[in-house]
Design goal:
heterodimer, A: mainly beta, 6-stranded mixed beta sheet, 5-stranded antiparallel beta sheet, about 0% helix, globular, B: 7-stranded mixed beta sheet, 4-stranded antiparallel beta sheet
Chain lengths: ~110, ~120
């Protein structure tokens, strides 16, 4: 079942913060976050494994709430290069391929 | 480290014609995936290989789509015959092995237009 991402779109000024959420109705083993720019392939950002760990990558971090089956991606002090569509991909037990959400469009304005 | 390679990058065909896409995964990656991404949507898994064996092809329209990975390295995805709704970007991804939580790395994709 496809995870639900929110919001569908966000427009920010450079330097502002954003939060993107990803929820699933299924029990998950992991959540994968990707960013895709127009006409390009999705680029891997990070994986969150069950256990509620939080990860960071420069000014982009994410958390995974196993009880709620929800992951959030945090972008702080956003830069112009952060613009793109963010996808969460969820993995249920069994090492299956990912099921992706519909994406969140992020536009950063100068 | 070289990334996932795909060819061709673009393909335009008429409906009912056949088309094939090629993927070369990252060296040493045992797991290979084919995804279909329709404009404005997230990628949808079509088929997953572990070496040369199929792990999951539950979402592959088998009446028209086929895929193989004969030697456990390169893979080919074929559509025969194509329909208008097959217009999409076909993405190949690979990961180190078939273990939960492994990062998948995508290739540049093949953009297919069916007219």
């Amino acid at each position: 079942q496809q995870p639900v991402q929110s919001p569908q779109a966000v427009i920010l000024r450079e330097g502002e913060d954003a939060v993107i959420n990803c929820s699933s109705s299924k029990a998950l083993y992991s959540v994968h976050w990707y960013r895709q720019k127009h006409g390009e392939a999705p680029v891997f950002l990070m994986i969150l494994l069950k256990g509620g760990e939080q990860k960071g990558h420069d000014k982009i971090s994410a958390s995974f709430n196993e009880k709620k089956q929800q992951s959030s991606l945090y972008l702080t002090a956003s830069q112009l290069s952060y613009s793109g569509t963010y996808f969460c991909g969820t993995e249920a037990a069994g090492a299956d391929g990912l099921t992706f959400g519909k994406g969140t469009h992020l536009i950063i304005q100068p | 480290e070289a990334g996932v390679a795909q060819s061709p990058r673009y393909k335009i065909i008429e409906k009912r014609q056949s088309v094939a896409f090629w993927c070369n995964p990252i060296s040493g990656h045992a797991t290979l995936y084919w995804y279909q991404q329709i404009l404005g949507q997230g990628p949808k898994l079509l088929i997953q290989f572990q070496n040369n064996g199929v792990v999951d092809d539950s979402q592959l329209p088998k009446d028209r789509f086929s895929a193989e990975r004969l030697k456990g390295v390169d893979s080919t995805l074929k559509i025969q015959p194509a329909k208008l709704e097959d217009s999409a970007v076909y993405l190949c991804a690979s990961s180190l092995d078939w273990t939960s939580g492994r990062a998948g790395h995508f290739g540049p994709g093949t953009r297919l237009t069916v007219t």
